[in-house]
Amino acid sequence: MVLVPSISMNEDPAEAADVAAARDRETQLSKFSQTLQHHQHEQQARVASSGNEEANAVDHEKAVGHTERSRWLTTAPEPPSAWREVVDYLRGMGLPSGSEFSSLNKKPVTQRVACVLKAIFPVLQWCRGYKATHFKNDLLSGLTLASLCIPQSIGYATLAKLDPQYGLYTSVVPPLIYAMMGTSKEIAIGPVAVVSMLISSMVTQIVDPGAEPVLYRNLVFTATFFAGVFQAVSGLLRLGFLVDFLSHAALVGFMAGAAVVIGFQQLKGLLGIAHFTNRTDVVSVLQSVWKSFHHDSWNPYNLLLGSAFLSFILITRFLGRRNRKFFCLAAISPLISVILATVLVFVTRADEHGVKIIKHIKGGLNPISAQQLQFSSPYIGEVIKVGLVIGAIALTEAMAVGRSFAAMKGYHLDGNKEMVALGVTNIIGSITSCYTATGSFSRTAVNFSAGCETPVSNIVMAITVLMALELFTRLLYYTPVAILASIILAALPGLIDLHEAYHIWKVDKMDFLACIGAFVGVLFVSVEIGLLIAVTVSFVKIILISIQPGIETLGRLPGTDTFCNVDQYPMAITIPGVMVVRVKSSLLCFANANFIKDRIMQSTGGEDEGERKMNDFQTTQLIILDLSNLMSIDTSGIASLEELHKNLVSHGVEMAIVNPKWQVTHKLRLAKSMSKIGGKAFLTIQDAIDACPNAKLASI
Amino acid sequence: MVLVPSISMNEDPAEAADVAAARDRETQLSKFSQTLQHHQHEQQARVASSGNEEANAVDHEKAVGHTERSRWLTTAPEPPSAWREVVDYLRGMGLPSGSEFSSLNKKPVTQRVACVLKAIFPVLQWCRGYKATHFKNDLLSGLTLASLCIPQSIGYATLAKLDPQYGLYTSVVPPLIYAMMGTSKEIAIGPVAVVSMLISSMVTQIVDPGAEPVLYRNLVFTATFFAGVFQAVSGLLRLGFLVDFLSHAALVGFMAGAAVVIGFQQLKGLLGIAHFTNRTDVVSVLQSVWKSFHHDSWNPYNLLLGSAFLSFILITRFLGRRNRKFFCLAAISPLISVILATVLVFVTRADEHGVKIIKHIKGGLNPISAQQLQFSSPYIGEVIKVGLVIGAIALTEAMAVGRSFAAMKGYHLDGNKEMVALGVTNIIGSITSCYTATGSFSRTAVNFSAGCETPVSNIVMAITVLMALELFTRLLYYTPVAILASIILAALPGLIDLHEAYHIWKVDKMDFLACIGAFVGVLFVSVEIGLLIAVTVSFVKIILISIQPGIETLGRLPGTDTFCNVDQYPMAITIPGVMVVRVKSSLLCFANANFIKDRIMQSTGGEDEGERKMNDFQTTQLIILDLSNLMSIDTSGIASLEELHKNLVSHGVEMAIVNPKWQVTHKLRLAKSMSKIGGKAFLTIQDAIDACPNAKLASI
């Protein structure tokens, strides 16, 4: 009953081991034959039972054997072409040609216009249901937001190496535009730390803000304009997925790195250093600080003032977290710090003792800056590049913020609409003296906690900031620079998510590498390098996983027709004489086809030459190659399958392929390779076993 | 019996259509309920039949329900760590720690040494069985090879911008070394066109061969040394897979591009142009030719001579292909051409009328060049880079040649041994005045056709070339340069495989893009850019396929428990109320997770807001997410699965996941996400349907 090739018994000294192995196998075989018999009975029973009852309904099913199923496989219709896939993909993204507009055509013109307007300005949708209770909440959260926003805006403007009023301008127009067009209810729009730092670090490489402040500012506006165009165009072309290309892990690392860099840069304000490096990497910054210490060009009063108010802000925040009652105090503590510090300096005239103060802030409405956009500048190429990078980072941050809060409230954020809204916001911002605005992590959290209901809180904030610009800018004359540094520093811990980094480390080491790569890159080289490292690691990971070479042995799970990896499911039963292997990777291509082919040959024992062939006996009579993992195959992959079949046949082993995916079947057919690899293609592993006489021979 | 949510019937004017749709669905449902009933009967019958017979064998199987199987899934052992995978991978590559050496330890010392020697020098293995009949064939093919090799070597040396004797040297030592260490029987080792062109184009960028011929030559030897080191080290470290990274398609394009470039360069010799560009791109070459035409610095006799003998070689080859009898004539026609042309020039003294001749070739044995390797040269960095590129290309070519002929004769080529052999060949070559040698396409084909049996044909060839070097170099004084150009030109068509390019185009458009990218890059920019384009396109293709976003709807194949893509298998039956979707990509990661999540939400109708929700009724009560395609998942993927579950639940839809792979299960467990996505994980789709009460509700 059991077929053990006879060559195994009569050669070489290592006979004893062989005999034992053969006995083992014999036991296995008899076990399996029982299983198989059971299985065959099962099948007969199945056919019988289906025959007895419901003859009509199952007529079709009864007739279907593995031959028929194999035919289904080989005669499947052609898969959609690459072009078709792209079109379907774009449909899936919700291109305007979709259902939205087809239903539109049936309606009268006025309704159509209303529909389009509503799609562009979601405000028209939600404002109809707006109630007084909503406004109460929005007013409160808007005012809270403004109290945090005014000092932060001034601080971020200095981070972006612009005059303080430009930060305030950026907190007026962008929130108003976004409130009309955005779909997020909580997001707080305005200047943010990372984008401010990014813009200054990149534009500084083009012109020196110290030497040519006007040109520098104009280039910042121009970069903002291109960032907006990039965002709006991406949204219109439904390229929302581009935002996803900076992976979550990379973003965590990037944000943390940027926060540390910004933190170190604040040493300038905190120490009152006059000459500071333009570079952002930690080494340059620390060198710069070290030099100032050395030349005694710093002032301890600045440090004293800064640290005192930083402690105050951090303590109130800590209290606010422990107890809801103190939340409001935590939110307005930056504003309180500014007022207290300003009064303190004014009273003590500390500016005469070396405490640096903001001095003049130009008040009034945002001036128009359309004339200042530098489209014919010789730097236009570099500025467009800056715009792209800033636009992408700003988008990523806004989407991350918006999505996380939308998920908390359980509604969905339309990525493409958000991109258009943010793009238009920045385009209009760039012609009204604003630099790049986006959703701020810290302020959005405050807005959410303060109980905002709609984007009206953004409008309230913008109007408050506008009033401050009109009325109170003179009062900020004596505000010490160190206090701005403390406010920025206080906002940074929110950007460093150690908990998430640990989570990433635990779940996926490669993701963590992307995270730490971005962090280190930003910290020690530059923002662009950090981003580049993160994106590269992320994509290298995709490549490695996709082409990871290797095969897994499959066994039948008891009680089912399902075949699974025997390592993952130790209870799975392998079949003697039949080797069921699955290609592990999702592509059989130039990069792994040869390796996988060699691996399969090795596992059949077909690779050994000379001596070993004589000693070991060949156990495998049938190789079943489960191709279900393969998404695609290329010409190298097809060639190696053909070669594998040829080699196996020359070693007396049969080969069957099981469940090739649509694209794979199609490509094998195009290359006319089905016959070259033996023509044995089955839908399931059981079908392949049933259909191959060799396998039966071995197992019965 | 049929559950149609009542909201669908009593709103909006488009009622009629809805009613019709509902009716359709009703019909479907009743059909399905029949199918399901049948299926349940089937299952009962199966359990009954297995209960009746072979009670012992199947005791275990009977008890196993979907709950048990689901438990198997969630309690699978931990998958091997990344480190373990790498170790296993290296084992698979056949690292010396494997079985080879463990069996070795049992043997006495002398046998062990013999074993190791045999592994390093395969010649010791095959020479024992070497017979006189073998030698007869090898002698014949070796001589045929030499007759082709001598003129080609001289030609390729001029292509590499070296003196002619260096080509001959490269045909002496490398074949001898390779014959000792190589495992291929047919491959003909020596200088080849593409490597010669590559070496001259790359080293020319470092020093000008016209101005500093000695330094240039020394750098070529040094580059050859590093190419050899790279090859040998790759082989020893079992990095044979690196060769595969230049995909087949890219190689086809690269070879064709290189052939065209070499062809255009031959215009120099064919037209007898004195001043020629050092650049390899077609535009520079044609400009150079145009200038020469303009300044009349070319000579028509060269062209006449070259074209006449080119025609002769091509005609004899054509005859040789049509008729086996002329094969020998075709093989030695280059040698005949050289002899005839030399005699012709000597007799007519054509060199005095502008026909360029080779003049002096230094005869004698290969001089030692160990002293000339430039390890302390300032160019060492660049030379190492050149060595790497040349080593890689030479390896790729040799492996492609060796593998294709090994496959023809049905034996296996050990990639790593080949790499070591080729590496040692080139290292020894570099200290004996040879430049980089590798397997030649054209000469290997001749060797094979001439009936070689073992690497002895290479030895015969080497000795013949050596004799020519000792005795006949003076006779080549009057050989016209144009004849060398014709010989090179005649070898080029073999490098352009239009048929294969068409095949690639037919099977895989992206592969063809890599092919044409390499071709265009080599032709119009430079060899390195061509390679870079090819490799980039190949890897971008891998990324695109791996992250291609999308889902496919699955249906049950009649007569089975197998669920398949309904587009691929139109006979598959979908289940009303239950939506079975499979993620198409092999990775659920940052790049596609959000898109896939949105897509699934759309397909359930859960995405629509406001109006549409009222019109359509919700058909889906259960989403079964088949994760079997996923090789891995990252933190973004896990987050989007959690979000998807939350969204689905909020729309009243249940979600179950089916057959997550080992890594995916593990990562979900690490992230503690199993419960967050509902905890419903099943091994098969049928199990999921059986286990979810909602689904039963909908379908019975």
Can you offer a commentary on this structure?
Chains A, B: It is found in: Membrane. Chains A, B: Its main location: membrane. 2 copies of one chain form a homodimer. The first copy, chain A, has 700 residues and is mainly α. Chain A has 3 domains: 97-129, no CATH class; 130-542, no CATH class; 548-607 and 618-699, Transcription Regulator spoIIAA. A 6-stranded mixed sheet of chain A has the order 4-3-5-7-9-10. A two-stranded antiparallel ribbon of chain A has the order 1-2. Chain A has a two-stranded parallel sheet with strand order 6-8. In chain A, 49% of the residues are buried.
Terminal CA distance of chain A? 6 Å
Oligomer: homodimer
Main interface: chain pair and counts: A-B, 117 and 116 residues
Tally of contiguous helical segments of chain A: 31
Give a quick rundown of the structure.
The structure is a homodimer of 700-residue chains. Chain A has 700 residues and is mainly alpha-helical.
List keywords for this structure.
two-stranded antiparallel sheet, homodimer, mainly alpha, disordered N terminus, STAS_dom (chains A, B), 3 domains, six-stranded mixed β-sheet, 700 residues, Transcription Regulator spoIIAA, 31 helices, 10 strands
Task: Draw up the topology in text.
The structure is a homodimer of 700-residue chains.
Chain A: H1 15-52, H2 55-63, H3 66-74, H4 82-92, H5 99-104, H6 109-120, H7 123-126, H8 132-159, H9 164-170, H10 173-181, E1 189-190, H11 193-203, H12 213-236, H13 248-265, H14 267-271, H15 282-295, H16 300-322, H17 327-348, H18 380-409, H19 415-430, E2 438-439, H20 441-449, H21 456-471, H22 481-491, H23 498-507, H24 509-524, H25 527-547, E3 551-556, E4 563-565, E5 578-583, E6 587-588, H26 593-604, H27 611-615, E7 622-626, E8 632-633, H28 635-650, E9 654-658, H29 662-670, E10 681-682, H30 685-691, H31 693-699
Parallel strand pairs in A: 5-7, 6-8, 7-9, 9-10
Antiparallel strand pairs in A: 1-2, 3-4, 3-5
